[in-house]
Amino acid sequence: MVVLGVGAYVMLQRLSDEVLTVIATIACAGAIAAPGLLVAVTVLLRRAAGNGREERAQPAQPMMTPMMVVPPQMLPPAQGYPQPGAGAVWNDAPVQRTFTVVGGPRGE
Question: Cα–Cα distance between 77 and 84 in angstroms, integer?
Answer without folding.
Answer: 10
